[in-house]
Amino acid sequence: MYSRNSFWTAIILGLVSAVFSNNATAMVSEELPRKIPRYAVSGYLRSQNGENLLGATVQVEGAGFGTSSNTYGYYVLTLDSGTHNLIVQYLGYKSIRQTISLNTNKQINFTLQETSIQAAEVVVLGRREDANVTQGRMSVSEVDIKQVKSLPALMGEADILKTIQLLPGIKNGGEGTTGFYVRGGGPDQNLILLDEAVVYNASHLFGFFSVFNADALANSQIIKGGMPAEYGGRISSVLDLSMREGNNQKFVTQGGLGLIASRFTTEGPLKQGKASYILSGRRTYIDVLADPLIPEDATAKGSGYYFYDLNAKINWQPTPKDRLYASAYLGKDVFNFNNRENGFQFDIPWGNTTATLRWNRILGPRIFVNHSMIYSDFNFGTGFKQNDFQLRLNSGVRNVTLKQDFDIHLSSGHRLKAGSQWIRHWFLPSVVQGRTGEFDIQTNNIPRLNAIEWAAYVRDEWDINDQWQINAGLRFAMFQQYGPYSYERYKDLSLVERLDSVGFASGRKVVFYPGWEPRFNLRYLIDKQSSFKIGITRNLQFIHLASSSGTSLPADLWIPSTLKVKPQIGIQYAAGYFRNFSSNSYETSVELYYKDLRNQIDFREGAVNGFNPLIENDLVFGRGEAYGAEFFVKKAKGALSGWIGYTLSWTNRNFPNIMNGRTFPYKFDRRHDLSVVASWNHSSRWKFSGTFVFSTGNAYTLPESRYFFEGQIIDQIGDRNSFRLPNYHRLDFSAVYTPRAERLNQNPIAAGTELNLRSRRRYLGEWVFAVYNIYSRLNPFFIYLDNEGSLQQNSLKVQAKQVSLFPVIPSVTWNFKF
Amino acid sequence: MKMQGHFVFKPAIRTFLWMMFSLLMVGCEKNITLDLPPPKPFLVVYGVVEPDSLIKVSLSRNSAYFDPVDLNAVLNLLDYKSTVIASCLDSVGNTVFDTLRPLQFPEFPILQYWTVFNYAGTKIRGQHNKYYNLRIVHPDHEIVATTLVPPPSRMDSIWTRTRAAIQKQSNPTANPTRRDSELVQLYYRYRDPQFLGDQVRIFTKSNSEFQWSSAFNSVYDDQFFNGQSIDFVLPRGKEAYLFNDSTTFDEFGLFQSGDTIDIKWASIDRTGFLFWRSLSQAAGGGGGPFGAQPTVTTNLKALRGGALGLWAGYGSVHYRYIVPK
């Protein structure tokens, strides 16, 4: 009889032998081959402008294997000595086929040419044609920035966040908003990175526009499951964006004039082929346009709203083995309201700042290392001033990160990635400062909260044989909060009877949370056209977003894990079947997932919106679960391209102290979610795109009865999220017109024997015509119950009302480049 | 220290959000019909015990959301099926019981429906620094509660400023109207004791107003000014606006020169503070996309059925102020 350990050993050995069985058979049936020397071919994959190409593929023709470039465009392949044909491919670029002769380690850089000027030859692939089937990772999507710009957008503002909402498993936060929710996770559970820097609040104007200016972006990748070990700190998804690096060959200026904002970008070489810069800005101008229309003596003169973004990046390659980058982002929303009559002034500024310094070095043909120093900051403020009284509230979060990542190419089909990360966090939960006359107002503010997070990881991507690939990683993360810190303990959640308070001096350890984060993905290639993949990941998240609203707002507070607030834990299981058709023209997949979310936070019942420095006392803790199926069909080649994504899902939450522990739907629980995206390249001058979305209405909380108290009508709230808003659907359309790059000459001059009939335009223009919500569907943004009239005057009438935001909205945007 | 504002950041932000939607978005609104589930029945209780006064209790039921709402409906929701018993300890430690008697119209006036107290005590009068129990037995509900009439706290001084003077201070070039010179803002100075945890509810009653009423934000605690002396606005109670169409939004919270203003300054316990704070937010129409639907807290314990409301102890102190003409 087997003992329990023997039993599991037998199972594991059985599995391992099954995995390796193909190899073993091959080895005994063939004569041992003579050992052939192997060499590494490595280098950078770049565009003709000098931009690194992330995820571009290098394949060995006829061998059925290859590799892809890392975040910095670096690739490594190990091959037998001899002659090989390499095929290099990247999204929207012409493929390169090059023959190489390998008898030593070689560095070969490839420069790819864009295909955009040859409209008929559109490639909608960002990686190997069959990557949908062959790549080991699942639940990953790359979104082409050019495609983002061509899809219809609200008010003409191309937006990466709204494009990723069209992918299965990713839901939007409401009509027109950029907030996104991945496989039942919350908005704080998405790791949004811009050049490796965390962007804490990725929206302008309360979510209607994202902070990402499409002109400044190069690559985007969304990982909604099976998160690789190099990523950590969030439990639902990663949106990894990188800024463009600037043209290192020539100076280029581009921009656009839109309905609500304009963009301007300049880029060029600082040293030809060695160093370049890019500077890109965007600003809304409603305030500027409206100001002259407001009379000088108007009470609200000086009031207004605007937002702006500024992206800057320089890079320099001092040696063939070294490359340095410095990039920064600054974005702000500013609202001012003045009332001269009452001497009242009110302002709300908020925004993100990020800065990244990076040093890439090729340590050897098989080892690539990146060192990064990163700064991220988000702050929110509210100021109120009347006469000699003034009050200001500030909240924010900030971090400084140091990290190192090594890419180690062990052999063909065996790649290792390892690294470490150190993060110093500062949290400013809510600080009030006031002054009246000559006196400062004393407040019981909690001081800035401090924490350090540290993580180390290793990830191995291993092609065991032609069928099996493992992508497994292990991450170990630690989080330590240290003083000053204090909190009050109450007898119960009514917060009436205070038991004691706990205080920690500055620098003293408050709490320490270590944890393992295993990540595992397995692919089985059924044949060249289909594969089966599974993924299991465990993620830790040490920071939380305390939000009392139905949508994500800049006023929401980021708080760290503390003595009372435990780290969030996310465990996700996913399995999928992937199949391509018609020579990889059509990609299809079905993915099933189950996600277990632990240590989720919410506000206790009875918590009141308002300034509360001891916000932890208003929080309760519980669990969540999400599960569903995602169906995806994509047409990747040809003049007509696009995809259909459908998600069937359930998302619930359970908190012992909410609704007496009964499970309730998460606010973004939507049973059905459908997106249809199509783009048609009609000619070199016209491109048409359309999107259609349908989703089940959001879960919503409504009152179920009412009562009278002190002459007021008070709603008695029903079960949380027990009501459903009507279904949401919308159709958008856009047309992109690109005039010829050449125009007829008015005075053609004979050049040799032919007349020079055409000359190149000084600039390239592009018109984007878009219609949002073509059939003007009045989708519900929210529902409210309105009391009209007065109870005391016997004229009270109760009416349910639905508010919709955007009917049909046409827009025109003009883009230019010279 | 002079404080002229309220700690109302969240409401201010919400106001801003609504403004942005009004100004920037081409929003549409339409009436819809909702099919809400049948409500769970609750007994709604507002009991008051304060120094030198007999105990009074208002008992009513909740109603389905779209039931007709008028004065008759309010009267029909009053509950008379309950036995209401208040109790406390006397000076030698014996329990004193007071069974409240139901009041039928016209024993209570129906001209003003601020609060209809339809049960009245006959024996127990409130005292500072003393606990009081309440027990309500209804065929479908059984409710118990305890409250404290806290020790008194007192204002330091009261004064007024005309709106014209306020405008001139913030904008020396302002041209106040005659009405601005008639309207006054009432202020008070309060010296807070050193210990954190003082809460107060403020009521006003001016001229011919019938009942004590409070402003929309009627309760304050000393979270921001513990142990300090503060000057603060004392806004006029809501009753002035509930029955008077001519009072404009612009004049909310203001009195007029010549007004006789009675002020009830009532210290309250923490439970009462949390109740009133959550109630004011619920009455203010929380919810929608920018704020969670608030749940009103209570200090009532339902042994059977359901209970909403408050058993309130007020450590009241009274003031009178006549606004100079």
Tags for this entry?
heterodimer, A: 818 residues, mainly beta, Immunoglobulin-like, Ferric Hydroxamate Uptake Protein, Chain A, domain 1, 22-stranded antiparallel beta barrel, five-stranded mixed β-sheet, 6% helix, globular, disordered N terminus, B: 325 residues, alpha+beta, 6 helices, 21 strands
Description:
The complex is a heterodimer of chains A (818) and B (325). Among the domains of chain A are: 34-124, Immunoglobulin-like (Sandwich), CATH 2.60.40.1120; 134-239, TonB-dependent receptor, plug domain (Ferric Hydroxamate Uptake Protein, Chain A, domain 1, Beta Complex). Helix content of chain A is 6%, strand content 58%. In chain A, the strands form twelve sheets. Chain A has a 22-stranded antiparallel β-barrel. Chain A has a five-stranded mixed sheet with strand order 9-16-17-12-13, with no helix packed on it. In chain A, strands 1, 4, 7 and 8 form a four-stranded mixed sheet that branches. In chain A, β38 (619-635) and β39 form a beta hairpin. The longest helix of chain A is centred in the N-terminal third of the chain and has 26 residues, at 4-29. Chain A starts with a helix and ends with a strand. With 325 residues, chain B is of the alpha+beta class. Chain B has six helices and 21 strands. Chain B is globular. Classes of the chains: A mainly beta (818), B alpha+beta (325). Chains A and B meet through β23, β24, β25, β26 and β44 of A and β1, α1, β2, β5 and α2 of B.
